[in-house]
Amino acid sequence: MTKKLYLLLFCSIGLLSSAQNGYDISITIKNCPDTLAYLTFYQYDKTLIKDTCTTIKNGKIIFKGKSKLDKGIYSLVSQQKSIYFDFFIDETTQNLQIDTEYGPELIKKLNSTTSKKQNDFFEYIKYINNEGADFQIWKQNLNAKTKKDSLQIFEKQKQFELKIQSKEEDFITLNKGSYIADVINLKMEKTLKNPPKASNGRADSIVAFNYYKKHFWDDVNFKDEGIYKNPFFHIKIKKYLENVVYPHPDTLIVEVDKIINQTTPGSLLNKLLIGNLTYSYESSKKMGFDKVFVHLSDKYFKTGKAKGIYNDDSVIDKIIKRADKLKPITVGAIAPDLSMIDVKNGPKMKQLGFEKANTSEEVTKLFYDNTTELNKMFVKLHDVKASYTILIFWDVDCGHCQKEIPVLLDVYHDLVKEKKDVKVYSVYTMFDSEKYQKYIDEHKLDFINVYDASHLNNVIEKYDVYSTPVIYILDKDKRIKAKRIGVEQIKPLLTALENEAKSKS
Fold first, then answer.
1. DSSP alpha helix (H) spans, 193-328
2. What is the rounded distance in angstroms from the CA atom of residue 379 to the CA atom of residue 342?
3. Distance CA 198, CA 302 (A)
4. Tell me, what DSSP letter sits at residue 288?
5. Cα–Cα distance measured from residue 100 to residue 111, given in angstroms and rounded to the nearest whole number
6. What strands, in cross-sheet order, belong to the sheet with 448-451?
7. Which one, 30, 198, 216, 280, has the greatest CB density within 10 A?
8. pTM of the prediction?
9. Phi then psi dihedrals of residue 57, to 5 deg
10. What does the alpha-carbon distance between residue 305 and residue 323 come to, in Å, rounded to a whole number?
């Protein structure tokens, strides 16, 4: 009935509007049970309400306004907040009439009394939906159980995609220069139809991919403010950065800048892209991608190019502060040095009064009073001699740490048996040396076991340790090669790093 439409749900290229000022959208849905309806529009990855009809009589829904609607894709939304269908608005469709019937054939019966082009577009929508439905029925009836069945589905899927691609190409050609053609262009997959054969006799996937990447942004106008007011633009951005571009921070930085630079500085699209990409890479779970976030902060926020993105300027200050905190610990950077106390010297540090010190003044006095003695107790991170250093921050009382540390111990011993030049620099993030030493003794942790007894390092801030455990892998120069990884990732990553080093030598 009021089902959401996931493939494509929109309508209408109208004739020249008679409403020179404002908009007048009249939609009649036969047998419509609603008493109110919403007019919504897409804005990048958001859906916003533009207007509300509170008096539906005989299924007639009217939206009127004194100012023209911005160009974009709009939706008729039901009383239950589900989408009936989408349609587009441009200069020619400010005065629009659409008829249909409530129920399962709502899309099939969509009809415009004001625009032939809209009805042509409806035919395209019906074609897409019908072909998709036929394919799904065929797939269900096949009830794939064998490898042969899977291959058959794969070939049928390819045929379906080629048919859709051909239909979209035809539609774009017939409607070239229109807004709806630009929107369909965003949705369309620009694949090479007949790729050459590789040496194995199969289609050359490299040639096909290079074609796909080269033509991915064909005919996309980033200067058009309507280009992001549809459900496809932000998906296309995401797909390009996640599936097309090589997933390395340095590559992503170049590609992100290319995209942003195509927009008009200070435009809404420009601001939306900077804001959304900044958030995306700040919150990314993929290792090393915070480097992209740092770049965005340096290039756009620190330079004032991001001004106006947020209503509250303090947000910009927070982003800059966060990026500056992460910059020294991005993958590829030299890890900040640490001067930690060997836990074996815990009793001595306790005797000197460090564990009872409550203020920075007290710590400073204790440090200068005992500098000579303290220098003998420090174990510096950068003094560790090893091809690779596993740097871990953890807490004895952390439940997850209690599970991971024994596993790390096994991994470390395996690496030693394999004659890997690896050491573990184990940092206890708290200050109870007795508790720390007890755990070390009980579990026979033959790591470099240290803690910040002198209160000089502030590891929480320096290494962004907001939870434990946190694991870094450093090379012989103490350059960060991996960060925030699980124990199970250590051996595969070290193998990959060794292979990478061999290939360069």
1. 205-214, 233-239, 249-261, 268-282, 290-296, 314-326
2. 6
3. 48
4. T
5. 6
6. 378-380, 339-342, 448-451, 422-428, 388-394, 470-475, 480-483
7. 280
8. 0.84
9. -120, 125
10. 16
Place of tokens 């809404």: 268
Is residue 308 predicted with pLDDT exceeding 60? Answer: yes
Residue holding tokens 């991919």?
209
Measured between alpha carbons, how far apart are the two ends of the chain, in Å?
Answer: 65
Instruction: Report d(CA 25, CA 61) in Å as an integer.
Output: 8
Q: DSSP state, 299? A: I
**470, 466, 495: which is closest to 404 by C-alpha?**
470
Residue 362: alpha-carbon gap to chain centroid:
46
Alpha carbons 449 and 433: distance in angstroms, whole number: 11
d(CA 121, CA 290): 43
Question: What is d(CA 306, CA 164) in angstroms, rounded to the nearest whole number?
Answer: 39
Task: State the Cα–Cα distance between residues 485 and 492, nearest whole angstrom.
Answer: 11
Q: What are the DSSP calls for 30-58, one per residue?
A: ET---S-EEEEEEETTEEEEEEEE---BT
The per-residue pLDDT for range 417-459, each reduced to its tens digit, is 999 999 999 999 998 889 999 999 999 999 999 998 877 888 9
Q: Rounded to 5 degrees, what are φ and ψ at 171?
A: -65, -45
DSSP state of 203: B
Task: Identify whether 469 is preceded by a cis peptide bond (ω within 30 of 0).
Answer: yes
Strands 339-342 and 448-451, bridge-based pairing: antiparallel
148: three-class secondary structure by DSSP:
helix
Q: Which two tokens stand for residue 151?
A: 């291959």
Hey, what are 286's tokens? Answer: 């993929």
In this structure, the chain runs to a length of 505
CA–CA separation, 293 vs 331, rounded Å? 12
Which amino acid is present at 120? D
Angle at which helix 433-443 crosses helix 399-417, to 10 degrees, equals 50
Helix (H) or strand (E) holding 182: helix 179-187
Do 208 and 166 touch, CB atoms closer than 8 A? no
* Tens-digit pLDDT profile for residues 36-59: 999 999 999 999 999 999 999 999
What value does the mean pLDDT take over residues 235-257?
A: 97
Question: Nearest CA to 122 among 99, 150, 153, 141?
Answer: 99
Which domains can be identified in the chain, with CATH numbers?
1-172 (no CATH), 247-330 (no CATH), 339-504 (3.40.30.10)
Question: Residue 343 has which token pair?
Answer: 């836990």
Indicate the Cα dihedral angle 401, 402, 405, 410, nearest 10°.
-140
Write the DSSP symbol of residue 217.
T
Short-list 20, 18, 232, 30, CA closest to 111: 30
Q: What is the pLDDT of residues 371-401, one digit of tens each?
A: 777 777 889 999 999 999 999 999 999 999 9
Separation CA 16–CA 91 (nearest Å) = 8
> In which band, very low, low, confident or very high, does the pLDDT at 361 lie, cut at 50, 70 and 90?
confident
